[in-house]
Specification:
30% of the residues lie in helices and 23% in strands. It is α/β, with parallel strands linked by helices. It folds into 3 domains: 159 residues, 3-Layer(aba) Sandwich (Rossmann fold); 227 residues, pyruvate-formate lyase- activating enzyme, CATH 3.80.30.20; 56 residues, OB fold (Dihydrolipoamide Acetyltransferase, E2P) (Beta Barrel). The protein has a 7-stranded mixed β-sheet with strand order 2-1-3-4-5-9-6, with helices on both faces. The protein has a 5-stranded mixed beta barrel with strand order 17-18-19-21-20. Strands 11-10-12-13 form a 4-stranded mixed β-sheet, sandwiched between helices. Helix 7 packs across helix 8.
């Protein structure tokens, strides 16, 4: 096996997992193929947060098998952890490896580890389609033949016994893509039990990278030429709670700033209860931290939040958002919002719409509820009809577009700091501002440069601007 291709689905945490998989396969002597059609091994690193995410994976498996029938397809990630037998039934799949053993994926496919040497509390299941069922058998790792084809090897273990944190930033610069802002996953898993969410069941308990490891990773990125790093995690604000001794996320951020030369640190999604006064003050007071707060909302209805088992109330949430805006008047503020949760009435939805209308959001990620097998919400009565959920989704997306547009227009005639991403056309360069706005700069500019841009106008979802002067290396202290 000489070449591989990794295709990632879903969130930043999954992308970080994919980067680590790529690195380990290269360490085992494999080379990265340009696309799935050219690869001997194709790794699909999956998401399972919605039914459509599962469908995307199934479609990719069929497409790859059709275009490259000789390749070996390995499916890993959250979907593989949740429903390995479902994936195993799809023609073309060679391996199914759950999150429980994703960290050993390269060793397994390259034959450098035997199944009986795997960590305790793991098991290997043998796929069998007899009577349409899958039978798990401990201490087996073999292929069986059914209807003329070999069935995949399935390796899935107890995710709650899993202690590994697989993640890697992208160290190698790629001038043909937007890899100027690597994500560094510093936390994985979740101890919450939101009634709609399958993530704890497929990623396990919350676990954190130690400060020294994070600092080393960030400084390694700086040495490789990166000028912005995005901290990410499944439940990022809970970083450090599992360490001995326990620590706080604000301590991690402060340590990165004190012990590395990173020019810009961006924080991805943090739950509202973890936006502490200390963290808000730290982000607001330091020029080396991007002015950007993503704070999941899910619903503006107190009744629905309780059914979701969320740990805050609408008025608590609103207080956090207003506090963030008061100390960071130009910050991007975004949220995840779900519509169509079981039992969501017109009154509940109007409470959500009204709260969003009142708060100073600059963008929203709007999702329609998707029942995940094994979650309490999937079995709840009063499932919202699809047409109603789609209409609610449309209403919130339009409201979000209005808010984004107003936020963009407010910067016309002003200067913003932005990092260049790539040349997007013959005479323009795409960039991203410190406060998370897309920007098209006139002229061709080298990627991965901090520039001061004069904002001249807005076109669709993108600012238009001219380069003022290049930003010098940002101060290494706040």
């Amino acid at each position: 096996m000489s070449s591989f291709y990794v295709e990632n689905f879903g969130c930043r945490a999954t992308q970080a997992d994919g980067a680590a998989i790529e690195r380990r396969l290269i360490e085992h002597g494999l080379s990265r193929a340009s696309d799935a059609e050219q690869a001997v091994l194709v790794v699909l690193n999956t998401c399972t947060v919605t039914a459509s995410a599962d469908q995307d994976v199934r479609n990719s498996i069929r497409r790859i098998h059709r275009q490259n029938p000789q390749c070996q397809i390995l499916v890993t990630g959250c979907y593989a952890q949740r429903a390995p037998e479902e994936i195993a039934a799809i023609p073309g799949v060679t391996w199914v490896v759950g999150n429980s053993h994703k960290h050993q994926l390269a060793d397994l496919v390259c034959g450098t580890v035997e199944p009986n040497s795997l960590e305790p509390n793991s098991f290997v299941s043998l796929a069998s389609l007899r009577s349409g069922r899958v039978i798990a058998e401990s201490d087996e790792f073999a292929k069986v033949t059914h209807a003329g084809r070999q069935l995949p090897q399935i390796l899935v273990g107890d995710i709650f016994a899993h202690t590994q944190l697989l993640a890697a930033p992208v160290f190698d610069a790629d001038t043909e893509s937007e890899r100027t802002r690597p994500n560094l996953k510093v936390q994985d898993g979740c101890n919450n039990r939101c009634s709609f969410c399958i993530i704890p069941s497929v990623r396990g308990r919350s676990r954190s990278l130690r400060i020294a490891d994070v600092v080393g990773q960030v400084q390694g990125l700086v040495s490789s030429g990166y000028r912005e790093v995005v901290l990410s995690g499944i439940n990022l604000g809970r970083w450090g709670r599992d360490l001995d001794p326990p620590s706080k996320f604000a301590n991690l951020v402060r340590s990165i700033l004190e012990h590395t030369d990173i020019e810009k640190l961006r924080i991805s999604s943090v739950e509202p209860m973890d936006w502490t006064d200390e963290l808000i003050a730290l982000v607001a007071g330091c020029s080396r931290i991007a002015k950007h707060a993503h704070v999941p909302l899910q619903s503006g209805s107190d009744r629905v939040l309780r059914m979701m088992h969320r740990k805050y109330r609408p008025w608590h949430y609103a207080e956090k958002i207003r506090k963030i805006r008061s100390v960071m008047p130009s910050a991007a503020i975004g949220a995840d919002v779900m519509v169509g949760f079981p039992g969501e009435t017109d009154v509940d939805f109007e409470q959500t719409r009204s709260l969003i209308d009142e708060l100073p959001f600059t963008y929203l990620h709007v999702f329609t509820f998707s029942a995940r097998p094994g979650t309490p919400a999937a079995a709840m009565p009063s499932q919202v009809r699809a047409p109603i959920a789609r209409e609610r989704n449309r209403i919130l997306r339009e409201l979000a577009a209005e808010k984004r547009s107003a936020f963009q227009i407010s910067f016309v005639g002003k200067r913003l700091s932005a990092i260049t991403l790539k040349v997007s056309a013959a005479e323009s360069t795409s960039a991203l501002t410190d406060n998370y706005l897309k920007l098209t700069l006139a002229g061709r500019h080298q990627a991965n440069q901090w520039l001061q841009a004069q904002i001249d106008g807005v076109s669709g979802d993108c600012l238009l601007g001219q380069v003022g002067v290049s930003s010098p290396m940002l101060a290494t202290s706040c």
